[in-house]
Structure formats: structure tokens, C-alpha cells
Amino acid sequence: SYDLTQPPSVSVSPGQTASITCSGDKLGDKYVSWYQQKPGQSPLLVIYQDGKRPSGIPERFSGSNSGNTATLTISGTQAMDEADYYCQAWDTSTPVVFGGGTKLTVL
Amino acid sequence: QVTLKESGPALVKPTQTLTLTCTFSGFSLNTSRMRVSWIRQPPGKALEWLARIDWDNDKFYRGYLRTRLTISKDTSKNQVVLTMTNMNPVDTATYYCARTDYDSGTYWFDSWGQGTLVTVSS
Lengths: 107, 122
Prior knowledge:
The complex is a heterodimer of chains A (107) and B (122).
Chain A: E1 9-12, E2 18-23, E3 32-37, E4 44-47, E5 61-66, E6 69-74, E7 83-90, E8 96-98, E9 102-106
Parallel strand pairs in A: 1-9
Antiparallel strand pairs in A: 2-6, 3-4, 3-7, 5-6, 7-8, 7-9
Chain B: E1 3-7, E2 11-12, E3 18-25, E4 35-41, E5 48-54, E6 59-61, E7 69-74, E8 79-84, E9 93-103, E10 106-112, E11 116-120
Parallel strand pairs in B: 2-11
Antiparallel strand pairs in B: 1-3, 3-8, 4-5, 4-9, 5-6, 7-8, 9-10, 9-11
């Protein structure tokens, strides 16, 4: 099966840039999506196809994917961005796989 | 506006069969390229995709759960139903349904229901 690995936690100061990574074998050959999940809420799609933003998602959210690592970048991080973030990819063997999630703390 | 809502029992006993219904609006599963998936999340843990049904009634399941899962649709009611047999305490989770989009060889989930917590306990 195909696995995606995320750091359990990332901390960032308000106004700074947060980077959350997602690693997998030849991940750059696949498309990656990212979801934001706040406590008690459903996941929210913030990035799809590596770097596309759905309507309504702020421009401070961006994504990239190359080699074995995809990265979600939040520029000018705000307190409201504190949440769990999950990466997701599609693989013929699974076929949908999620990463283990990263807790973003804004402090 | 796309909305989805899950419904089903909050508590099931071990070995019982779970039946969950996803009622949606804002799109139709009669429309080409429309898809709905079920995804679950055990308390404090990560998301896990379970199954998907497409507009043309193609069905896909997570491999190790294939023998326990059945997904179906009722397009007249705008509903997708998931059944999971032989429930076990490890199946305790919040179960979500999500509209599933596709392009260029990949899938993503662009709208999610609020989720329904299912506890498996005797």
C-alpha cells in the first residue's frame, strides 16, 4: 500500500509563514490535495491538484509538490488557521490515501 | 449550493450491521462525472477513505474492508447508502460522506457532510 507521512505538529508565530510537508514515494508524480480540519468540524478542502485553491479559500494558502514531498504553505498565518491539516493523494493500489495529519499551532 | 448530511445510528453492537445514509443536494448522481465517497475518522485519528460510487454506478472499496462494505445510490432521493457488516469496536469513528471530484488522474473531496459519530459497543 502507499503511505503519506506528515509531521505530527508544526508551530508558527502569527504573521509568519507556515510550511507543512507530506512525504511519499515519488509523490511528485501524483497530485496532492490538502484539507483543513478545525476541532469539531468537517474537513475543508484548501488545495487540490497540488496548488489549486477552491473558491473562497484565501490566497495565503498555496501548495507545491516535487520529488517525494508536497508542501502546504500558509503565508501571513492567522490565528484562525490553527487546525489539523491532512494531505491526500490517489494511488492505484489504495486508491485514496490520507496522511496522518499535522496539528498547526499558531502562537 | 452543495450540501451533504449523514444519518444513521449513533450506537451499534459488535457483530451488527451498520447502515448509513448520505442525503445530498446541489448536485445529482444522475449527472455525468458526479461521485460520492464515504470517509471515516476514529476519535483523535486520521481520515480513512472507505468507498466511492459514481454516476454510472461504478463502485470502489478500500481493499481490506471490501468484504464488509456495500455502497449504493438512490438517485430519486439524492441518497447514497453505505452498509458495513460485522461491526467491531475498532470501527468506532465519525463517518463522513463527501462529493468527489476528478481530473487528470486524481480525486479530491470538495464538499463534506457534517459527519455522524458511530460508537460500537455492547
